[in-house]
Design a protein that fits this description.
Blueprint (H helix, E strand, L loop, with lengths): L2 H13 L2 H8 L3 H15 L4 E4 L2 E4 L1 H25 L7 E8 H18 L3 E8 L1 H10 L4 E5 L7 E16 L11 E2 H6 L3 E2 L6 H11 L8 E2 L3 H9 L5 E3 L5 H6 L2 E4 L1 E2 L3 E10 L6 H20 L5 E3 L1
Helix pairs in contact: 1-2, 1-4, 5-11
């Protein structure tokens, strides 16, 4: 198996046809077809369905595509690590952010990276926490912001902040209207809209609930933050989240974010890298910058509910 075969295969999938991939790669289409055939023969599996409309990945092709992307990225990172300067880092860095963190961290980090490291191309990917763990293990992302759930042993972790989770409801909802806060028992008794188990919020909520002898029940599962917010505004229920993803709605007065007590719920936000895949100078620089930006956001109060660790 050769690297060029991986590049060819990824290009075919990305462009949806052999002819378009051949044009982009500046390779004759018969040569591209031959390399693809050799790859499939070596793997003993059909990777693509071919038709007059183009190509689609088979189940085996979808699996191989993920691995091919990871391998090509690690090769690119290795090349960058050799050539780039430690004092003026350059190259591409991919940082994974959970949906519930990107609202607070993404834009300030992008702004700071462009100002501090103009020769670094910072690519932010927003994913479910469970997906980010797998991408970090495989090398498809250089760094990821995750939550310390006691299962981060495969990674090198740097604590960033302790983030409070609050009860988020529509502004005219009756819950906690008189007190301005809500007990965990009352929060769990409400009709809750929560992300699924692969989202970092859900395991933390259920862990704290179990510790208090309580449980979540009658939960509507929505993984998309945008859809979840629409459901709250439509009166379908409330949620337990950090404030950052709903900050705009809270500031407009469309939603309220009530502190939870008895007990409170918080989570430890950490920056993680692989123990097995060395960071390039550029990735290490982005890691340090991420910690700096998180500290600045806590100090300024922009990251509501976050306390610097």
């Amino acid at each position: 198996m050769e690297l060029r075969q991986l590049r060819y295969f990824v290009a075919i999938v990305d462009h949806g046809s052999l002819s378009r991939a051949a044009t982009v790669l500046h390779v004759a289409q018969p040569a591209l077809t031959q390399q693809l055939r050799q790859l499939e023969e070596e793997l003993g599996a059909q990777l693509l369905h071919r038709s007059a409309q183009g190509v689609l990945s088979t189940d085996a092709g979808k699996v191989f595509y993920e691995h091919a992307q990871a391998i090509l990225k690690q090769v690119s990172d290795a090349r960058s690590a050799v050539t780039q300067s430690a004092t003026r880092p350059s190259g591409s860095v991919t940082l994974g952010l959970p949906h519930s963190i990107s609202g607070a961290l993404a834009l300030p980090l992008l702004t700071a990276a462009r100002a501090r490291f103009p020769e670094i191309t910072l690519q932010l990917t927003e994913e479910l926490t469970g997906n980010l763990v797998e991408q970090l293990k495989s090398g498809r992302v250089n760094l990821a912001v995750l939550f310390d759930d006691g299962q981060l042993a495969p990674f090198v972790c740097t604590p960033l902040v302790e983030e409070e989770l609050r009860f988020i409801c529509r502004a005219d909802a009756a819950c906690g209207a008189d007190r301005g806060d809500i007990s965990l028992a009352d929060a769990l008794a409400a009709q809750l809209i929560l992300p699924g188990p692969r989202h970092g919020v859900r395991p933390r909520v259920e862990s704290v609930a179990r510790g208090a002898g309580l449980a979540t029940a009658n939960v509507i599962e929505i993984n998309s933050i945008a859809i979840l917010k629409s459901a709250i505004l439509a009166g379908m229920g409330a949620t337990i989240l950090p404030v950052a993803p709903v900050l705009a709605e809270v500031e407009r007065g469309d939603m309220r974010a009530l502190p939870i007590h008895g007990p409170a719920i918080s989570r430890t936000v950490v920056l993680c890298g692989s123990k097995n895949i060395p960071l390039t100078n550029a990735a290490a620089a982005v890691g340090r910058l991420t910690a700096e930006v998180a500290a600045d956001l806590c100090a300024s109060g922009y990251w509501l509910g976050a306390r610097l660790l």
